[in-house]
Amino acid sequence: MERRDREHGRIASLQVSLVPALIVAVLALAGMAVIFLYDARIAAGGWLTALVLWSGIAIGCLFALMIHTLTGGRWGTRFAPALFPAAMALPLIAALFAPILVELKIIYPWAYDPASTPSDVSQLYLNIPFYIARSLGALFFWTIMGLLLTRVSGGAAVLVAAIGLGIHGLIIGLIGLDWILSLEPAFISTSFGATLAFTQFAAALAWAAIISPTDSKDPALADIGGLLLATLLGITYLNFIAVLVIWYGNLPQKALFLVRRDEGPWMLIGVLAFALGSVFPIFSLFLERVRSSALGLRCIGAVALVGIALYDAYLIAPSFGVLSLASALVASTAVGALFVAFLSLSWAKDAHKKWSAARAR
Q1: How far is CA 10 from CA 69, 223, 252, 356, in A?
Q2: Keywords on this record (predicted)?
Q3: Contact 90, 343 (CB under 8 A)
């Protein structure tokens, strides 16, 4: 097994020790404490933005592993050492989500003013106990799925992945509404769940491309490059259709969501998110020599992740004001440092070994 890993370069590591990551995390958390004392709502908005970004990487990695379990393919085998540790970080995400659950009333309009929800149905759905139950239930499900995938093999693994993907398809739509869209309760998008799932998958592929040791002659590079290209095209298409339906369908309540993002810095952030998260990586990945290049994929993955981070900020930060952008930057540093530190723990590092051992049985 070790020889196979050495031959194919499949042991992925961030090569970052635990202590430096924790130092960065402590400093960033201290910064968040200062922001919280200045304005708790701005701090909460930044924390939510950071959690959406980093949870997207972890959930996207789990999603990628479930897909690979069903379909197979050298891309999943090659990048599993990068995907498994990130997927195992979901308990950390659940723990870091606690401040959001505590401060719901300063984050969501429906939490501090139930009358802001547009209908009785929304009021029955958007309430604090139900929100907490859905969020904890989803995080628990994703954590259990990650554990199961490291311990089952063969037909059992296929069955677990198939059931998991079905449930995930339902959960991701609910979580997208709860965590993001319910910041503006009057806005509803039936396609947003799919958009969020694609975005998380793209984040996972970009993450794997960045941190994996690579061999430029490895044919799996072209596979993951093609997958990233297809996923980014899917995100772009879904977002374009959503905007088209809103504007040309004469839906003023939904158009208001976009109008609010035409003001201040939000338009610039939206343009940058589109350029870095769609245009640049898509046109770069059209080139076969780029898709097959280890360095090229690493650079495109980094740019795409920045674009995804800006996209998350574009969706969330306008509800909290311009200063929440600074809060989101500090919070993303804190959560990211904790995420990296968590990956150095045996819980995360051993996940791929357990998966390989289960497959060998």
Answers
A1: 17, 15, 51, 11
A2: Membrane, Transmembrane, Transmembrane helix
A3: no
The single-letter code of the amino acid at 315 is L
pLDDT digits (tens, 9 = 90+) for 138-196: 999 999 999 999 888 888 989 999 999 999 999 999 999 999 999 988 788 888 999 99
Go through 246-270 and write b for each residue having 16 or more CB atoms within 10 A of its CB, e for each that does not. beeeeeeebeebeeebeeeebeebb
Helix (H, G, I), strand (E, B) or coil at 236: helix
User: How many other CB atoms are found less than 10 A from the CB of residue 240?
Assistant: 12
What does the alpha-carbon distance between residue 192 and residue 176 come to, in Å, rounded to a whole number?
7
CA 355 vs CA 1, 80, 264, 280: distances in Å? 12, 9, 48, 35
- Give tens-digit pLDDT for 20-60: 999 999 999 999 999 999 999 999 999 999 999 999 999 99
Please return the burial class of 272, using the count of CB atoms within 10 Å of its CB with bins 0-12, 13-18 and 19+. Answer: middle
Q: For the chain, state the CA radius of gyration.
A: 20
Strand blocks (E) in 110-229: none
The CA distance from 162 to 143, in Å, is 16
Take residue 57 and report the two structure tokens written for it. Answer: 């990487």
Q: Which amino acid is at 105?
A: K
